[in-house]
């Protein structure tokens, strides 16, 4: 038995409407960010890694020079849950902090 309920298509759509820059469906949500430099991209990934570890919920991360893509899905449930939308919000907060620093 899983610990997090899958979100319905309407719930995912509603969450995506509130998450700037995120896209996806019931299987996965994702966002791509451009950092000002490669070291800045890595700093963002390190901060996201700390938050993800604390939440025991880990995104798939793709780093291409200054471009970082975060993909979120609750693998144990086979799709998007509230854990994913919560982590997306935290990633947005960290990205915003990096953009203004």
UniProtKB/TrEMBL annotation:
Q: What is this protein called?
A: Putative pterin-4-alpha-carbinolamine dehydratase
On whether Ribonucleoprotein is a keyword of this UniProt record, the answer is: no
UniProt GO molecular function: 4-alpha-hydroxytetrahydrobiopterin dehydratase activity
- What EC number(s) does its UniProt record assign? 4.2.1.96
Question: Is Chaperone one of the keywords UniProt gives this record?
Answer: no
Specify the enzyme's EC class, one word. Answer: lyase
Catalyzed reactions per annotation: (4aS,6R)-4a-hydroxy-L-erythro-5,6,7,8-tetrahydrobiopterin = (6R)-L-erythro-6,7-dihydrobiopterin + H2O
**Family per record:** Belongs to the pterin-4-alpha-carbinolamine dehydratase family.
PANTHER family attached here? Answer: PTERIN-4-ALPHA-CARBINOLAMINE DEHYDRATASE
Q: Which GO terms describe its biological process?
A: tetrahydrobiopterin biosynthetic process
| Database matches in CDD domains | PCD_DCoH (cd00488)
The alphabetical list of record keywords is: Lyase
Where in the sequence is the signal peptide annotated? Answer: none
Q: Please tell me the species this chain comes from.
A: Planosporangium mesophilum
| SUPFAM superfamilies according to UniProt | PCD-like
